[in-house]
Amino acid sequence: MQTRTVALLALGSVLVLAALVRPDSGDSPAQAEPDEPRRAVVRDWPLLDATGRAPRGSTCGNRSRRVLLSFDDWDYAEPKRMVATARTAKRLDVGMLYFPLGEPNTAYRRAHGKSLADKVRAQGQYVGNHTYDHRSLSTLGAAAIRREIRGGVRSSLLRPPYGAYDAQVAAIASDLRYRICLWTLDTRDWRDLTPKQVRTRIVRNVRPGDVILLHMNHALHRRYDVRALVSAVRSTGLKLCRPYREHGEPATSPVRVPRKLRC
């Protein structure tokens, strides 16, 4: 009887361990690559409170009390709008952070000879990597994660799609010389809120030093007015990050975003 009990306990332990192991995507062997540094386990999703804040979110190099507006994804219907918003921001003396996808950015460069990311940088705005085609990195194997990151826009900042990443993603990003960059305030414009609703969320919840998450690819977002977003933040008495500068003058921002933004 005792022998049977021990055997059943051993079998149960094996089944529990098997259930805890995440199946590999098939893109690479399940074991971690030997040259990758170990990283502490992090959350798959940013921890959001009732207002959409991410207390553990990254400030993306914004160490000031100024607010940083950031835009994810791509305006597929009007890709040049990204450059138009960058020009408006420069005229308003505002520096913003863009995370376009690598796939459409590469296609635009092949068609027009210059990428939209380069045009945005020319306006003193910052550009980060949002992967090649917006696959959730924490569901992929190591080889696929590397392909997604390498296929994205060149930068030193990586914003994983959906904010989803784990220890493996963090280790590979570090190996490729990227820093994970999330946000501290989610406007939830991805719920197709009206521009007015988005501005209201900003005014009610923004705090000094916030990195605000917005998206370029939602239909209603094409009606967003950068001037109105800037005015919404300034109406709270807070200041926004300024465009990149060299020797005190606006300049083209570097491909590798500085660890400390010159806000």
Automatic annotation (TrEMBL):
This protein's name: Polysaccharide deacetylase
CDD domains assigned to the protein according to its UniProt record, in alphabetical order: CE4_NodB_like_6s_7s
Any one of the GO BP annotations: carbohydrate metabolic process
Keywords associated with the record: Signal
Pfam family, one: Polysacc_deac_1
Stretch forming the signal peptide: 1-18
Sample GO molecular function, one term: hydrolase activity, acting on carbon-nitrogen (but not peptide) bonds
Membrane-crossing segments per the record: none
All copies of domain NodB homology, residue ranges: 64-179
